[in-house]
Amino acid sequence: MDNLGPILSLVFIIITARLLLKKYYPHAVLLVSGLAMLLIAFILEQKMPILDKPSGFSGFDLFVYIKQSFAETNAGVGLMIMAIGGFVAYIDKIGASNALVYVAMKPLGLFKSYPYIAASLVIPIGQILFVAIPSAAGLSLLLMASLFPILTNLGVSKLSAASVITATTAFGMGPASAITASATNIIGIDTVFYFVNHQILLVLPLSISMMVTYYIVNRYYDKKDKANQSLQNKSEEKSVDVPLIYAIIPVLPILLLIVFSDLFSLFSTPIKLETTTAMLISLFIAIIFELIRVKNFKTVLASLKVFWDGMGNIFKTVVTLIIAADIFAKGLISLGFIEGLIDLTQNLGFNAVGISIVMTIMIFMASMLMGSGNASFFAFGPLVPKIASTLGVNSTSMILPMQLSASMGRTVSPVAGVIIAVSEIAGVSTLQIVKRNIIPLGVALVIMLTYHFI
């Protein structure tokens, strides 16, 4: 009976994957599957997710989970993604995106002959930004607003550009990362020390491997897929009818988030911005630019409708899918999917290296299935000190690859918020991006395990 829950969770994973591959409406598939798993978990008297305000009747509580997921998502990552989506729509409407492309194409013109090199260079640049902007969905959408149009104008296909942008968030590292904070808290060492002396040393060779593999994989798929070739924009010339100063608007949120991040202490009184606030500040700066240019107060105010429409489009396509994926993840957890993986790990009888490798791979797979690196690592991570002490090994050495594999697995998950958001703006499917990501991330996982343990 103890194994029934994990077995049923695997059955639901297979059924859900099959329906998604058959192109059933993903929002409905994930939502219904999640609710079905929660119902079965309740019947089997499994440990259910905690509700802030239960209804008092278990039948109604199934729908309270949906309501709570809406509330939590819309108050956090959902609002952020909608704000970025609205901002992207607005800067495109006022011509700021075209201005950025026009300005950037001057120094980057030489990459028109080497578009895949340009795409690969996005990976280390984005990973550096990810240290200062530790939101995977947030950073990816900011790069979609700023780098995506530049890449496509250099001749990079939409799928290749989207894949390397999601790859920038493959390694959750740095003092501001939630996974890093959890890992250092578990093993009891300083976060900055862990970042400088452990994370960077391991991530560096992985980043180089990903630059090489993405170059090969994207080039191969673009040549193979005629449809993707039609998406390339090498010969496209966009006119610019706004002042070139508008080119600063798409990158303004990134600049604000870097300057006012935890990594810098530029002011005597600490000032810190989060992504949604940075987007709103940038929006109103863009409105001021438009007032100066257009000199028609009524017209500029009316243009704000584009921002709200952009937010609405992101909500109905991206945020609702993230909520459905959250219910699906809750269903998996309630059926004991994580506990089943942990029990399997502990019963294999491997030595320290063997257990570390198995747990790293399992975290990768759990993140891939649930679309959340945090959920999988927060479940496995606390086990490390006990296992490490029992086997007489260093807990830091054991937890480091586990921590990195959590965010790596999220990057190849079709239900991860970052993949969903990027695919919507790029106009491609999540499975197409995952197809581009799976080989480079799989190679990086093998290299990490080999380099770190052998």
In words, what does this structure look like?
This protein has one domain. The chain has 454 residues and is mainly α. α10 (191-224) crosses α21. It is globular and about 70 Å long. It has 21 helices and no strands. Residues 230-235 have low confidence and may be disordered. It has helices at residues 4-21, 26-43, 58-75, 77-94, 96-108, 115-132, 136-153, 158-167, 178-187, 191-224, 226-229, 248-259, 275-294, 297-334, 337-346, 352-370, 373-380, 384-391, 395-410, 417-426, 430-453. The chain starts with a helix and ends with a helix.
Note the gap between the termini.
39 Å
Order of helices and strands: HHHHHHHHHHHHHHHHHHHHH
Q: Please tell me how large the radius of gyration is.
A: 22 Å
Poorly predicted ranges: 230-235
Query: What is the residue-averaged pLDDT?
Result: 88
Number of domains: 1
Give the helix tally. Answer: 21
Sheet-strand content, in percent, reads: under 5%
Give the class from helix and strand content and strand pairing: mainly alpha
Shape: globular
Quick rundown:
The protein is mainly alpha-helical. The protein contains 21 helices and no strands. Helices cover about 75% and strands about 0% of the residues.
